[in-house]
Structures are given as C-alpha cells and as structure tokens.
Amino acid sequence: MRIFLSIITGLLFLDASLGAAEPKLTGAPDLNELGIKYTLKKSTDPIPNKIHVLRVDLALNKVKSAVALGPDPDGDGPAEVSLTDPRKLASSPSVLAFTNTNPWDSFPNAQGKKNRNWYSGQPVDIHGLAGTQGKMRSTMAPNNASVWFDAQGRVHFGHQPDDKPQEATTGFQLILSKGKLTVSQGGARHPRTAMGTDKKGEILWLVVVDGRQQRYSEGMNIHELASLMKELGCWTATNMDGGGSSIMGLLDKDGKLKVMNSPSDRSFGRVKIRPLPMILTITKSTNLKK
After folding, report:
1. Which of residues 90 and 289 earns the better pLDDT score?
2. Contact, 278 vs 130, CB < 8 A?
3. pLDDT, averaged across the chain
4. Which residues form the domain of 17?
C-alpha cells in the first residue's frame, strides 16, 4: 500500500511539473549568471517537507521584479481582478521565475454566501497593496506585511504613506523583523509561501513549502516558516498567501517555464493549479541583451 501511495504521489508531482511547461524562450538564459539560484531542500524533522528556495541577487542589476495581475473585470466596480491561471499570468517570454503573492476573497451573493471554489474568471477582491509600474490596483493603509520594490529595483518590507512603490504585493503578516522571529510557536501546518530579504535589501528569497501531502510534504506552521527564513539568511520576511495558492515556477534549461513545487489542490486525484489574482515575476532587466 505504501509503495502504491508513493507511486501515486510521484505521478501527481510529475503532472504538476510537466503539465505547466508552456512559455518558451529561444535559448534559455543562464539563471546562475543572472543571479538566480534554485535549491530544493528536504526536511524530515519533525515531519517530511519539500522546500523550494529561490535566491535572487538584485544587486547585480541583471533581473527585476514585476507584478503580473489578472484582468480587471468591472473597471470602477468593486472587483479588482479576475482569477487567472498563474501560468498564463507568467506567459510573457521575459519571465524567468514566479511565485504567488497576495491573499484575496470573493464577493457574497444575495444570501451573503461567498463562493470559495476558485475558478478562472471569478471576480475577487485583492487583500492589501497590489500594483505594477507604479499604478496600484489595490490600496491599503500603512501595513508591515507589504513587500514592494522601488524604482531602482530594491525590495522593501512595510509600506508607509510617503513610499512610492513601483511593484507592490502584500502578505498576511511579518514573520521576521531585524533578524528576530515575530510569531509564536505552534499552530496549524499548511503549504506556505514566503518572501524575505537581507539587511541591505539586495538579496530576495522566494520560498514555497509544499503541504497537505501525507508522507511527501506536510507543510509548516508560521513559526517553522519564520525559522526557515532566518536560517536562509533573511533579515526580514513576510508570510504570503499559502494553501492551494502556493506555487513556484522557474525557467528550465530548455527555456520552458516549469512549476517546481507540488500544489496541494486536487481534481479527480490529479494536481489542480489554482487560479490566482496576481503573481510576482522575476524577469531580465531591460538593459540586458536578449
């Protein structure tokens, strides 16, 4: 029985990885040369976990961060975005990598109930600051859970009234501040996505922890996630949206964008990629030759 479950788990992971290979560049760039390093960490203590880590060196000025948002379904109406397959959001040939970002929610119907089955095209409300190229699709009061990038491409955590983000996202909460954990121990374990930076804001860590997959990868609580980000070298880190939204994509050696993790949503036993309101992409800087 264990062997059978292991085979099924392997096939599901393969489905998530290969089924997402859509966009393709002519001649894949050397990601290490651009300052992008992917690492798969495997943990067994206290439970099995697969941890996907992207370390992005922003100081090299060879890549930049850019938010990709789904379409606005109603202009000035209440909905800010329509949920979209993240692989479609990342379909630009310039995208080298991506992860999910902000949480969101649907709108109540006449009976006050919200549809949280999440389908492509569903109009939703983004939680927190969200925008690209200096234009904010979703705004918020000052909040320390935001992760944004200035005109020079450097990353900042926490948004204040005088800040002028070029690219903006927001998570649930700050989990690491000035090298110290800001969350208590314990809590439920789920798939997780986190963003972190070093003290200078020059190194960006994008982390996805697979979860809800027994004996393969069961997820982390917030304290475990914060400890992981500190171990990686983060000075500051934020817990982003997680659960079935957690996803990481990376360009492979053939120039195809590949989903690196095993998302937790399932449909008839197969991996189901959840549609999202937005993602954070890593792209080549415009001053580099193609």
Report:
1. 90
2. yes
3. 91
4. 2-284
Distance (Å, rounded) from C-alpha 8 to C-alpha 162? Answer: 52
For the chain, where are the alpha helices, taking DSSP H only? 2-18, 86-89, 222-232
Q: Residue 63's beta-bridge partner residues?
A: 284
pLDDT tens-digit series, residues 211-258? 999 999 999 999 999 999 999 999 999 999 999 999 999 999 999 999
* 62 three-state secondary structure: coil
Between 112 and 22, residue with greater pLDDT: 112
Residue in the block written with tokens 């379409």: 71
Question: Can you tell me the mean pLDDT for 17-31?
Answer: 57
Q: Is 289 contained in some domain?
A: no
Longest dimension (CA), the chain: 59
The verdict on residue 133 lying in a domain is yes
Q: Mark 87-99 as b/e (b = at least 16 C-beta within 10 Å).
A: bbbbeeebbbbbb
State residue 64's pLDDT score.
Answer: 96
Three-class DSSP category at 160? coil
Tokens of 102: 């902000």
Q: Enter the tokens of residue 106.
A: 């649907």
Position of tokens 């109930």? 113
* Tokens encoding 71: 């379409």
The answer on pLDDT for 13 being more than 80 is no
Strand order in the sheet with 135-138: 135-138, 130-132, 167-170, 143-149, 155-159
Give a yes or no: residue 139 inside a domain.
yes
Q: What global pTM score does this model have?
A: 0.89
- Report whether 279 contacts 90 (CB < 8 A): yes
- Residue 290 inside a domain? The answer is no
C-alpha–C-alpha distance, residues 169 and 149, integer Å: 9
Give one DSSP letter per residue of 99-142, joined into a string. Answer: EE---EE--B-TTS-B--S--TT-EEEE-S-EEETTEEEE--S-
Number of domains in the chain: 1
